[in-house]
Amino acid sequence: MLPIVIIKYSGYVYGNTPLKNDLSHIKDYSLFMKKINYCLSKQFASLEKGGRLIILTADIKKQGKLYSMLLDMDKIGTLEQIIVKEQNNCLSDTKSYKKENFIRIAHETAIVLRRDYSYTLDFSIVQKGTCDLRNSMSITWKDLVATVIEKLGKVAKLEDIYKEIEGHKKCNSNKYWREKVRQTLQINHIFIRQEKGVWAMS
User: Fold this and answer.
1) Which candidate among 22, 140, 144, 174 keeps its CA 20 to 30 Å from the CA of 150?
2) Closest CA to 160 of 134, 106, 199
């Protein structure tokens, strides 16, 4: 669960009691976006042909990673416009950070979706996942071996490179995968043989 910090409306900005259907009180970002996408589909369905839905979106930075509503939100209908505006009263403006090596959020966006047809509509649905490169059949041996050596500290014994790759799809599809690893190390100039059985990145 990723805790999010956004402005809470009911019970704070207006009224004395938080409302159960107020999405600003949802603490988990994934659940928040799931609810946003559900509301988006219901609101878009209520549009007449030619109608427009405008949604103001914001970004959140947490632990060095950007969470963007604009990127994570499903897009329904015709994307007509993205409007960028200056964001005022940012929570981060009132804080100081130990590490200031990042660009602070200074804008928010409004997305304009248009309904062009009665029965049909275009859509773009965000799908996220995780891939282990050692199980990818599209990665080249050069890139895979380079990734392994970098992960091992940019200097690695050949036997340790074998251990990192063994048992994954990339080598399971080639019974001579150890020979392929050695060939990859020998023919690519980005790899340097430091001593027998020890390789480094250039």
Assistant:
1) 174
2) 199
